[in-house]
Design a protein that fits this description.
Layout: H1 8-17, H2 22-40, E1 43-46, H3 48-63, E2 74-78, H4 105-112, E3 116-121, E4 141-142, E5 145-149, H5 155-162, E6 168-173, H6 179-185, E7 188-191, E8 211-216, H7 219-229, E9 259-263, H8 273-288, E10 292-296, H9 301-319, H10 338-349, H11 352-365, H12 371-391, E11 397-401, H13 417-422, H14 428-433, E12 437-444, E13 450-456, H15 462-474
Parallel strand pairs: 2-3, 2-6, 9-10, 9-11
Antiparallel strand pairs: 1-3, 4-5, 6-8, 7-8, 7-12, 11-13, 12-13
Helix pairs in contact: 2-3, 5-6, 7-15, 9-11, 9-12
The chain binds glutamine.
């Protein structure tokens, strides 16, 4: 049996029964990386030695009766999360050799619960992108078909999970970066409620939108991972002082009494026919499970994308000001003045997409333009929030596609920056409103690629997302049939 193909909960049970050891499980995952990394290219930094040491420790702890809930389970991390024992590049030349002095809170939590960290996986540069193609290093391929992108910005997380190069991964989501790659690679991914998970040690992109969350092989694993990383952290002033529920308790059959909203505005958004078909089939499945379907309206949908890109770029321009060639990161040589050092380090250290966003964001925040752009975008954000609050008076969950299109071929969308921005239309509202949102595989496109279904819920209702997602998953045949990248 190939241990790398197990889900977290299957592996956990086998470890608990003593059928396998954490060392065997980790060795299987490392051998899998050797076999498929040449095609998948998900990792920026592998942690083979560290992972084996952690696995031995996990086995010792289990023998001593001190196993945490993730004891011995191999998990990868998006390279945007600080790790004290591995560099954190953010997919950028700017941080190519950056070694953080501490672990992000979520990393510390995983380690304290016994997880085995397999390494740091690739991403779009500073999490800006939707295909992982803006990364300064390796761009992952989609494990279902290597001609296609894995999605982004957490492309390495989704590819590593789908290819069996870890059992689960942590990503980050500012405008869809967990859900869209999860959808493209046939995995599950959740963007938790804003404040549900600590961001201490997450390199900031747009602070009013960023959240950390898991990408996993199924909904049960996703619930387990969120339970492990959620909760208040005094190091993050935006984290919520709310009890973390036992999410696995919400995985029960039947959706009686649950109203699922279908936004009428979401059907004219250039959604491909085969994607639409998977959404319709999934709605039928949710109905079979007992849910009631209701039509709702989100009238400000058309304005939300522009507001998102303004806010994200403005906040990014401010957050990325710290990379100046002086304190840490890339430093240009032969500069005879401080100004030159700043400008040359930033010109050479950042890639095209990041520079474009810093310039646009700085412009939007500059004096005289602030009211016309950032303030206006914030007002639109309030309107979008109101839309959702009103919709949630009529329904308990909102269902749609995650992305208007399935995974696209390399270079296809990157030639047209506007097209790639527009494809975020369905995921960005959850970041603008702070509400939780999950992506669950719904079926396959006409070209045989996964299509993810998005479910959104009011603040802190992750349990409902897991419940509905689990009920959908049980009725979808493709789930669990992960591809074979080694055969490509
Ligand atoms: N594609 C979006 C962007 O480029 C979302 C990225 C993200 O969620 N980190 O901004």
């Amino acid at each position: 049996m190939d241990l790398y193909s197990l889900t977290l909960h299957e592996a956990k049970e086998m470890l608990e029964r003593g059928d396998i050891t954490a060392v065997q499980l980790t060795q299987s995952v490392l051998a899998r990386m050797d076999a498929v990394e040449g095609v998948v290219k998900a990792y920026i930094t592998r942690n083979d030695e560290g992972a084996l040491t952690a696995a031995k420790q996990a086995d010792d702890l289990r023998r001593a009766g001190k196993a945490g809930i993730l004891c011995g389970l191999p998990i990868s991390l998006k390279d945007v999360l600080c790790t004290a024992d591995m560099k954190t590049t953010c997919g950028s030349k700017m941080l190519e050799n950056f070694q953080p002095p501490y672990d992000a809170t979520v990393v510390e939590k995983l380690k304290n619960k016994g997880a085995v960290i397999t390494g740091k996986v690739t991403m779009d540069e500073f999490a800006m992108g939707s295909s992982n193609e803006t990364c300064a290093f390796n761009v992952p391929t989609n494990p279902w078909n290597s001609k296609y992108v894995a999605g982004g910005s957490s492309g390495g997380s989704a590819a590593s999970v789908a290819a069996g190069e870890c059992l689960a991964s942590l990503g980050s989501d500012t405008g869809g970066s967990i859900r869209q790659p999860a959808s493209f690679c046939g995995t599950v991914g959740i963007k938790p409620t804003y404040g549900r998970v600590s961001r201490y040690g997450l390199v900031a992109y747009a602070s009013s939108l960023d959240q950390v969350g898991p990408l996993t092989k199924d909904v049960t694993d996703c619930a387990l991972m969120l339970e492990a990383i959620a909760g208040f952290d005094s190091h993050d002033s935006t984290s919520l002082k709310q009890k973390v529920p036992t999410y696995s308790e919400s995985l029960i059959d039947g959706l009686q009494g649950i109203r699922i909203g279908i936004p009428k505005e979401y059907f004219g958004l250039g959604i491909r026919d085969d994607v639409n078909k998977v959404v319709m089939d999934s709605l039928d499945k949710l109905k079979d499970a007992g849910a009631e379907l209701v039509e709702i309206s989100l009238p400000h949908t058309d304005y939300s994308l522009a507001a998102y890109y303004l806010i994200a770029m403005a906040e990014a321009s401010s957050n990325l000001a710290r990379f100046d060639g002086v304190r840490y990161g890339f430093r240009a040589e032969d500069c005879d003045s401080l100004d030159k050092l700043y400008s040359k380090s930033r010109s050479l250290g950042f890639g095209q997409e990041v520079k474009k966003r810093i310039l646009l964001g700085t412009y939007a925040l500059s004096s005289g333009y602030y009211d016309a752009y950032y303030k206006k975008a914030s007002q639109v954000r309030s309107l979008v929030r109101n839309d959702f609050n009103e919709a949630f008076a009529k329904c308990d969950l909102i269902c749609s596609a995650v992305s208007p299109v399935p995974a696209f071929e390399f270079g296809d969308m990157s030639k047209d920056p506007l097209a790639i921005y527009l494809s975020d239309i369905l995921t960005i509202p959850a970041n603008l409103t702070g509400m939780p949102s999950i992506s669950v595989p719904g079926g396959l496109s006409t070209d045989g690629l996964p299509v993810g279904i998005q479910l959104q819920a009011p603040h802190l209702k992750e349990d409902l997302l897991f419940k509905a997602g689990w009920n959908l998953e049980k009725r979808v045949e493709m789930v669990g049939n992960f591809p074979k990248p080694e055969a490509q």
